[in-house]
Specification:
- By secondary structure, this protein is mainly alpha-helical.
- The protein folds into two domains: about 1-185 and about 245-410 and about 450-490, Growth Hormone, Chain: A (Up-down Bundle); about 185-245.
- Helix content is about 75%, strand content about 0%.
- Helix 8 runs antiparallel to helix 9 (about 120-150) and helix 14 (about 255-285) runs parallel beside helix 18 (about 380-415).
- The longest helix has about 40 residues, at about 380-415.
- It is globular, with a radius of gyration of 23 Å.
């Protein structure tokens, strides 16, 4: 059963990034602009984030096995539809559908893994499960690059078919159904307000750069809807008897701090990938396959840390591992600030591997700390919230860095252009005779050089922003409590799967 749960986890996590390297090809095929084609990424992440919220209720009401099977089937069908999309509208709609069905795969597989393993082996179980969650986004670009180069970008979606079929057949054959719980009505108002808040916030972040942010009535309306939706969700959850996200889980200090931690880690995990992919292809000029393999080097680091972290948790305080994870991932992100077109591939690979090691050391111990003292009765809903927060962080992170990249390039182009005057001594050099000429070719070459430098500066600023996000997690580490005693005893025993 562990293999089936891992396949479901990897299949869903893989699709958060497998399309990254294929975006330039989709952009031409679907007639989309650079900012529009990023909706292919954010639409999937946002729909998955919204639909993660009711996963706990669905599992209790209809049974974990049934929900997993239906979602695996729906995810596979939606993947095939994405591969057949003929326009950007089709692609975004099918990616939304894919995210809706994929939302339950990761949290439910995590909950089942925690239930079927005894308390003393739960750290190892989370290391196994975490490999799927971490390796999916990391290996996605490599697999996506190979499929795009070998066939077409459509195969990054068609590849889910055999894995989807194998997952469904495995779940049917090996998984036992959980007991159903009746009498727990779903909180539709709270769910609607949360969906409105998250959806409007993401639309504002995606559309703001194109429309001039708050100069646009649409962006102002989206911001108002986001604030109103999140406010009413919070107020309703604090006052209603049975909200669909139980507030009781946030009484656990480690879980609450861990959720904030995971939001920031989610930003770093996917936002850096969203930056590095176009950087390698557009700035450095690597072919799609080479850039995919370079991006995949981060998976090597993650594999190294995942192979040892489960064993280290048996005799080491998880907070120490989280500390070293923050140090490694933040250092690697900081090193990206100094990337240049002439930077060697080896330098990039080393930084990528270190970042992979850091993220691996972060992810599993953080899961262990957050759930070590949480009551077993809240575990299913808590895993849904955990995935929800990670997805929201990822979606917001991608939108922020893409918007900052677009606006930053424009601003830096204008600033650099201010220096291109007849009195610029650099242009007076004989070697720059072609550039200072009045010919259209000279002006175009000069503009391309300025645009390239402006983009390079903007990428560096974005990487610096992600490094600062990493630094912001250090104070949170001081708020986490030691959970070694709870890890040994397992706290409350997990419910058995009957």
């Amino acid at each position: 059963m562990t293999v089936c749960l891992m396949m479901a986890t990897i299949m869903q996590a893989l699709d958060t990034t497998i399309a990254n390297v294929a975006l330039p090809y989709m952009q031409g095929s679907l007639s989309a602009t650079q900012d529009q084609v990023n909706w292919v990424l954010t639409s999937y992440i946002v729909s998955a984030a919204i639909m993660t919220a009711p996963v706990g209720w669905l599992a209790m009401r209809f049974g974990t096995k049934r929900v997993l099977i239906v979602c695996a089937v729906g995810f596979t069908v939606a993947s095939m539809l994405c591969g057949l999309a003929q326009s950007l509208t089709d692609m975004v709609l099918f990616r939304l559908l894919q995210g809706i069905f994929g939302a339950a795969l990761v949290p439910l597989s995590q909950a089942v893994m925690m239930a079927i393993y005894p308390p003393e082996r739960r750290g190892q179980a989370m290391a196994i499960w975490g490999m799927g969650v971490m390796l999916g986004p990391i290996l996605g670009p490599t697999l996506g690059a190979w499929l795009t180069e070998t066939w077409t970008w459509r195969w990054v979606f068609f590849v889910n078919l055999p894995f989807g079929i194998a997952t469904v057949l495995g779940l049917i054959a090996f998984m036992k159904e959980t007991d159903l719980r009746e009498g727990h009505a779903f909180d539709w108002f709270g769910f609607a307000m949360l969906s409105l808040g998250i959806g409007a916030l993401q639309l504002m972040l995606d559309r703001g750069e194109t429309l001039g942010w708050f100069e646009s009535p649409e962006v102002v309306a989206e911001a108002a809807c986001a604030v109103a939706g999140l406010y009413f969700f919070l107020a309703h959850s604090l006052t209603t008897a049975k909200p669909f996200i139980p507030i009781a889980m946030f009484a656990d200090r480690n879980f609450t701090i861990g959720v904030i931690f995971m939001f920031l880690v989610g930003m770093i995990l996917l936002a850096t990938l969203a930056l590095v992919t176009p950087y390698l292809q557009l700035i450095v000029g690597y072919p799609v396959l080479d850039s995919g393999f370079l991006l995949g080097s981060r998976g090597v680091g993650t594999l190294i840390s995942m192979m040892v972290v489960g064993r280290l948790l048996r005799f080491m305080d998880a907070r120490i591992l989280v500390f070293f994870g923050i140090v490694a991932s933040t250092w690697a992100t900081w090193s990206f600030v100094w990337l240049a077109p002439e930077t060697s591939a080896l330098t990039f690979v080393v930084s990528n591997i270190v970042q992979g090691i850091g993220l691996g050391l972060l992810f599993v111990p953080l899961n262990t700390i957050a759930f070590a003292t949480l009551p077993a009765a809240l575990r299913t809903e808590a895993t849904a919230v955990w995935s929800l927060i990670r997805n929201i962080g990822s979606a917001i992170g991608v939108s922020i860095v893409v918007a900052q990249l677009t606006s930053g390039t424009t601003v830096m182009h204008a600033r650099l252009g201010e220096a291109l005057t007849p009195w610029n001594l650099g242009l007076a050099d004989p070697a720059a005779a072609t550039l200072r000429g009045a010919s259209a070719a000279g002006r175009a070459t000069l503009d391309a050089m300025v645009t390239g430098q402006a983009a390079l500066i903007s990428y560096s600023n974005d990487f610096l922003l992600m490094a600062l996000v990493g630094l912001a997690t250090f104070p949170l580490l001081l708020l986490l409590q030691d959970t070694r005693a709870a890890q040994m005893s397992g706290g409350e025993s997990a419910p058995a799967l009957d």
